[in-house]
Task: inverse folding
């Protein structure tokens, strides 16, 4: 057997046993699309945002919660809650599905609050999403669509069930540790952020140092969150904490800023080496990026100091 043939056989054997290289991945993150309590109407800018999202052809769209406008007292009826979800699916979910884009959601306080009295809204949230469960490579899905984990192109994603202020409930930390262990790239997403971003929402956080320690221990790369209605990509201890702007009503000011955050969505690109880059596209046509230099260099609170992403790398 000649040397060229031996080399060809060796290369073929290597190809058969070598792990597949990670592929580039594009993810769009949308958040806080709801309007006033009980509303079944969505702002026209959301139609424009979804048009642009589809044009970008991401591999995945993530929602960090508050897709409908529940959690009201006196309570909304089941029919009212169902009507809100019907509108949401018509305006967002069905369009993404028709474009063949998987849509991963996490509960918000206005979608599926875990506070007492809103059990029916959590039940409806589950019932709405179970039939729409995207076809993904799940690592833990027994509590979908609340806490669950999946892998895509070498990146592990974990949805955290965070609709109540304070540390995560149940066994989420233990399950996150199991899923994140030995992973190359890990992205978590939840409605509440771990740390504060916006004025007058400083206490509306997870604020759990045990979760932060687990992030460092397991090498979590990024946490995507909603609820604070202001865009900011901040870094702490080599972990990116990215707060999403809202697409619905109620944009807010970042801590240390004088201006309300523009309505926008976030684009996350992960290259084949696992490097993460991201930017936000803002209204009205979602073609122009939010200029990072217009955002505070740091967000400083008693709980944490976050450095703007471009200053931390």
Result:
């Amino acid at each position: 057997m000649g040397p060229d043939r031996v080399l060809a056989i060796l290369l073929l054997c290597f190809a058969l046993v070598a792990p597949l290289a990670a592929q580039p991945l594009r993810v769009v993150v949308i958040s806080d699309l709801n309007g006033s309590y009980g509303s079944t109407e969505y702002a026209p800018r959301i139609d424009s945002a979804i048009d642009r999202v589809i044009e970008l052809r991401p591999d995945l769209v993530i929602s960090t919660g508050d897709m409908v406008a529940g959690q009201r007292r006196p309570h909304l009826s089941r029919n009212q809650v169902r009507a809100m979800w019907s509108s949401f699916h018509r305006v967002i979910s069905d369009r993404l599905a028709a474009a063949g884009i998987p849509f991963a959601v996490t509960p918000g306080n206005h979608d599926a609050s875990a506070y007492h009295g809103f059990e029916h809204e959590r039940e409806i949230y589950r019932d709405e999403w179970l039939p729409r469960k995207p076809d993904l490579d799940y690592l833990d899905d027994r509590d979908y669509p609340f806490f669950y984990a999946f892998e895509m192109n070498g990146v592990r994603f974990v949805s955290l069930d965070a609709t109540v202020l304070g540390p995560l409930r149940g066994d989420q930390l233990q399950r996150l540790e199991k899923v994140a262990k030995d992973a190359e790239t890990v992205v978590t997403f939840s409605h509440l952020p771990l740390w504060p971003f916006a004025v007058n929402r400083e206490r509306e956080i997870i604020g759990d140092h045990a979760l932060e320690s687990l992030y460092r221990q397991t090498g979590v790369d990024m946490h995507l969150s909603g609820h604070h209605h202001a865009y900011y990509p901040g870094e702490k201890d080599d972990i990116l904490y990215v707060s999403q702007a809202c697409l619905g009503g109620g944009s807010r000011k970042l801590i240390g800023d004088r201006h309300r955050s523009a309505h926008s969505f976030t684009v996350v690109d992960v290259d084949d080496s696992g490097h993460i880059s991201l930017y936000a596209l803002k209204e009205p046509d979602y073609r122009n990026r939010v200029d990072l230099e217009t955002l505070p260099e740091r967000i400083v609170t008693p709980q944490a100091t976050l450095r703007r992403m471009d200053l931390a790398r």
